[in-house]
Design goal:
The protein is mainly α. The strands form 2 sheets. Strands 1-2 form a two-stranded antiparallel sheet. A two-stranded antiparallel sheet has the order 3-4. The longest helix is centred in the middle third of the chain and has 17 residues.
Length: about 270
């Protein structure tokens, strides 16, 4: 079953509109590269925020205040960047427990334990009885950067970045905020949502729309196996990828449209 409130899957027309409106705002090269990486490689927000220059390009020598670079063919995404990892000590994920599952027998044992502690006059803290939180494991993956528009966007952005700051290091963040510091996942999440919702006027689009759009395209349009989509997405379990087997919104819209036409004909 699909989740309610999922990020919107963009149509080709909506994606084209997004790229167009980006050119009307500040830092179009950076924002185009951000969007292309999100929609063409399906990276999570945290993964994009943690990207370093060396992940996408090899820097040349600094000669006469100019710096050359060569774009890589494959983005080798380290496991430390992926969901749940405390990558580079810059973005530590927090886990909030919303729901706890337990058996009747386990609950009965827990109640007896609390009763015994209460009778003994021991201090009782609810958090001491929470089941252990299972954290997400990082998963590395190699993503070919062979899409022409993707490569062009990254080249254009890096060309401007290196022309302005030729002394950058290969370990510097790939994307910087207007203040010159690295993006936090939350800040980048808000920025990607801003571009899609306010600039392009696409309802329910979010920072996860790029990832959902890519996975939907791979499974529904390209008819690739879930295994292929799982590898690209970096999901540990194929059951997570199976969520994307749900029909995209446009398919439902088309189906309901034709139903309406059939009623009119009758």
């Amino acid at each position: 079953m699909s989740k309610t409130g999922q990020a919107r899957v963009l149509t080709p027309e909506q994606f084209s509109l997004l790229l167009t409106v980006i050119q009307k705002h500040r830092h179009p090269e950076k924002n185009t590269a951000l969007v292309q990486i999100s929609f063409k490689l399906g990276l999570r927000v945290q993964e994009i925020a943690l990207l370093q220059i060396k992940d996408v390009a090899e820097l040349g020598s600094l000669i006469s205040a100019q710096r050359s670079f060569k774009l890589k063919e494959i983005l080798a995404l380290p496991a430390a960047y992926t969901k749940g990892a405390d990558a580079l000590r810059r973005s530590k994920s927090t886990y909030q427990r919303r729901r706890i599952s337990f058996s009747v027998h386990e609950f009965h044992q827990l109640v007896q334990q609390i009763e015994a502690m209460a009778k003994a006059g021991a201090e009782i803290k609810p958090e001491d009885f929470y089941p252990e939180v299972k954290k997400h494991r990082g998963k590395s993956r190699d993503l070919p950067m062979n899409d022409v528009a993707l490569r062009t966007a990254i080249k254009n952005y890096l060309s401007i970045r290196l022309a302005t700051h030729p002394s950058v290091k290969k370990t510097d963040p790939l994307f910087l905020t207007q203040k010159g510091g690295p993006y936090s996942p939350n800040t980048l999440q808000e920025h990607l949502a801003l571009m899609q919702r306010q600039w392009a006027g696409i309802e329910r689009a979010s920072s996860h729309s790029g990832r959902r759009t890519l996975m939907t395209n791979i499974i529904h349009n390209q008819k690739k196996s879930v295994k292929v989509a799982q590898k690209i997405a970096g999901h540990v379990s194929p059951s997570t990828t199976l969520i994307y087997e749900e029909p995209p919104e446009e398919s439902l819209k088309e189906a309901l449209y034709h139903v309406g036409r059939s009623y009119k004909s009758n």
